[in-house]
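Handout, page 2. Input:
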Amino acid sequence: MKKAILVVMSAALLIVGSAAFAQNTDLRPAPLREKDRYSQFSDHGKDQNMEFAAQAKERQKAISNQRAQIKELQQQLNSRIRQTKSRLNTLRKQLHTLDAGKISSIKQTLDSIKVANRVLQSTRETVQVKNSELKSARYHRRPEAFLRALDDIIDIQQKRIDTLSGILSDLERLNNQLL
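Output:
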C-alpha cells in the first residue's frame, strides 16, 4: 500500500513539476535589436557588418519610397478609371456614335492597357519570388544574395512604376479620345 501511494505521489509530482516548468519555455527566437539585426549575416567583423547594414537600410528605404510612389500611382489610376467609365456611360446614354478612326484608336489604346496589365501581373509574381529569395538569403546568412535580392526588387518596382505611368497616360489619351 505504501509503495502504491509513493508511486502515485511521485507520478503526480513529476506531472505537476514538468507542467510548471513547461509554462516558461518559448522556442521562438527573441527579436533582434536594431544594431544586431544585420550582424547575423557575417562573421567577419564589425566594420563589414556596419557596411552591410548601411547598404541594406539604403536599399530598404528605396523600396519603401518606391512602394509609396506605386500606391500614389494606383490611386491616380483608380481615379482616372472612374472618369473614363463615367465618360463612357454618358456617351452610351446620349447614343453618340464615334467615327471609325476614333474607334480604332480606342481599340489600340485598350490593347496597350491590356498588355500593361499583363506586365503588372508578371511583376507581382516576380516580386513574390524575390521575397522568398530574400528570406532564404537571410536564413542562410548570405549577405551578397540578400543585397542582390533587394536590388532586384528595386528594379522590379521601377518597372511597375513605369508601367503604371504608361497606363495612366493611355487612360488620359483614351479620355481625350472620348471627348
